[in-house]
Specification:
This protein has 228 residues and is mainly alpha-helical. It has helices at residues 25-43, 52-65, 67-70, 79-95, 100-111, 115-148, 164-176, 181-198, 202-222. 67% of the residues lie in helices and 0% in strands. Helix 1 runs antiparallel to helix 2 (52-65), helix 2 packs across helix 6 and helix 4 crosses helix 9 (202-222).
Length: 228
């Protein structure tokens, strides 16, 4: 999710057309790199993903590589986006029950590591949940897919504009990535609505980041690790 800055509202739905031969690259490559890293680390992990920090390192690296493409979109965070993120967090707790068995299995696995590695792993997990994942997923789903489903030439779609089809389809695909499909789909709709408010990707990223930050805090305080 960001500092107090993020993306500035422009006339095109992507900040990349002037800088890259393929304007979709800064929006999609971070997501592709993240998915590839998940597959690779998953292949070397049995049960517990001890290599999760690699996801964060790869994500930060590729976002930094495209940093100049995102600079024109820097914009202050809005209170509306923060409230939307908080609302999604409350809804998630109601709609997605924790699993006591999964909570226990996670805690037992984490406890097998040295204490320093437990804290280091949790630190990377929090950074991933609250920073890199919201940025990468919102670039892909709200920055690219939402517009691509409106017009093949997605750069011609005004920021924050969507049709009923693009709104529902992009949210449903977003939901498929998040285990609890219905809850994930409704969360995707809320983030798309946040995008619509000021027509800047700052807002869905902020909302997503707030949701994940609150969820990370709740998980650590309660031990309901299955919600991660």
């Amino acid at each position: 999710m960001r500092s107090g800055l993020l993306f500035f509202k422009q006339q095109l739905s992507t900040p990349t057309s002037a800088s890259y031969h393929n304007p979709a690259m800064p929006l999609l490559l971070p997501y592709i790199a993240l998915m590839a890293t998940i597959l690779i680390t998953g292949a070397f992990s049995s049960g517990f993903d001890w290599l999760y920090p690699l996801r964060v390192i790869v994500s930060i690296s590729i976002l930094a590589y495209f940093a100049n493409a995102y600079k024109p979109w820097l914009q202050p965070i809005s209170l509306t986006a923060v409230l939307i993120g908080g609302g999604v967090f409350v809804f998630w707790l109601v709609a997605v029950p924790a699993s006591a068995a999964q909570d226990l299995a996670f805690a037992q696995s984490l406890a097998t590591a040295p204490l320093y590695w437990q804290y280091l792993w949790l630190g990377f997990r929090i950074i991933g949940a609250t920073l890199t994942v919201p940025i990468i997923e919102e670039l892909a789903f709200r920055g690219y897919l939402l517009a691509k489903l409106v017009n093949k030439d997605f750069e011609q779609v005004p920021p924050g504009h969507y049709t009923p089809l693009s709104f529902l389809a992009s949210s449903a695909l977003f939901g498929l990535l998040h285990g609890a499909w219905l809850a994930g789909t409704l969360a995707g709709m809320a983030y798309a609505f946040a995008y619509y408010q000021r027509k800047t990707l700052t807002d869905p990223i902020t909302a997503h980041a707030v949701t994940n930050a609150l969820l990370a805090t709740y998980v650590i305080m309660t031990g309901h690790w299955s919600l991660w």
